[in-house]
Prior knowledge:
The complex is a heterodimer. Chain A is mostly helical. Chain A has helices spanning 2-7, 10-23, 29-34, 42-51, 56-72, 77-93, 106-118, 121-134, 150-165, 168-178, 184-191, 195-218. Chain A contains twelve helices and no strands. Chain B contains ten helices and 15 strands. Chain B is globular and about 60 Å long. Classes of the chains: A mainly alpha, B alpha+beta.
Amino acid sequence: VRGAERRGSDAERARWAARSADRGPLVSADAVVALPSRPRSDAELIALARVDPAAFGGIFDRHYAAIHSYLRRRRDAPIAEELVAETFARALRGVARYDDERADALPWLFGIAANLARRHQRTEVRRLRADARSGRDPLQDEHADAPARLDAAAAGPQLAAALAELRTDDREALLLFAWADLSYEEISLALRIPVGTVRSRLHRARRTLRAHLESEETI
Amino acid sequence: MHELDLLRTFRAELPPAPPQARAAARARLAPSTRRPRRARRAILATAAAVATAAATVAIVSGLDEGQVAPAPATASEALRRAATVAEQRSGPGVPRDDQFFYVASEGTELVTAAPTSDPANSYSYLYTKRREIWLSVDRGGLLRDTQIGPPRWLSPRDERNWIAAGRQDASGRIGKDETPMGAIHEYHIGDEKFTTAQLLAYDPTPQELFDRLRSRVGDRGQSPDGEVFVEIADALREAPQTPRLRATLYRALALVPGVQLLGSVRDRLGREAVAVAFTEHTGLRQELLFDPHTAEVLNERRVVVHPVQGLRAAPGTAIEDIVYTRRAVTDATTRP
């Protein structure tokens, strides 16, 4: 019961469990409540980290894979590794400013990661363009050959071209939505923009994406 | 397939971070916790690149194989001269649709990281990749990336800090990655697509080309004029052109407001070059170095010219440095 209180409403708990299932070992909503290794919400760990920074290790262990995966999709491996380390180092320095009302720290962490990533947007856009032209995606693992990904692999150059075309702000919102799996509200928290702005940025980004994929089909 | 579903699967199966990298990132959290917190600007883990501009760009005289050629006085004069050279040179040429356009380059980035909140513990290293690409309109091409050597330190202190931060493992990550590519189907100039036939026939005036690129820039780039500069560089870098189109690209570059002449320089490999640049309001300067005798792009760099918000690199630091070593047309995915 206490666990359920800490994780918030049932809906929130289910969403959190679904997210965990996406990212790692399968965990059911019920298991989350009982799981001894995850006894505290992110907000509690962060509150602890203000007096005992070692508690921040729990935040790191919980979210490293998600943040790394997001950054790795945007940059080369060595740079992604530096950026993810910097994301957590910055987060630890910023625990004093964390809003304790937010049980889940992921939007906050993704906001920091997105801010770091966007400083390299020129390099990112240049690479996306090169990828679009080269007909393949050099960031994609060549050994990954799950059948479900074939369509995406074929559309890779068009997706890269579309991402390169987007306004920086639109791209940030879109990648947080599609790759970080954040909701409109969470993107709004991560980027510190109103939800209405998130909606319009996503709308514009998706329109550009569709236009690119459609133009390719008609050729 | 839904566009969002496609995007969600795009690059979805990249490998996780190696355990050593994860351990090192976690270790970075520990030391700073025993330090009193100080109000200090956070240091960016920047994927910046390379050696200082001042050290690598040595001014040389404008001598042209024994003849005394007065150095160009302005960027547009230098670019018009490059255009004249381009018209007289066949260059690598435009491949047939069953042939390949081959480009070899070497790019260096500077990775700077702060393991703790104390800048004294930060470290920077150079990370260099050789890239070879074979592009074909109709046939499957090839991209070969080779990471060259272990990380290179800017100073012994950087190496000590790197070891202290637990990153020794990175020296082992020297890899070669060879991946087949699909056919490219068409070429690009700005956001427009060209078949080989269209590219061979494309003959705008420099003003028409500039206006066309400028009018289609939209929201891309840091500034509209800077974006045109970058798009012209895109068209020269890893793409074929006819001599006439190459000349037009250089003349259009001369029309970009704010393009400046840096003068006659040596590129990173010591080759004689003429450098032009566009400085963004953010404090970064985009440099294009070309060979005055062949009008080939030799080197591209981005250099910090005045302090950039959030970027610890000092003015004069090149945060990206790519040298082009070979462009050629080939019949197969083999080196020319």
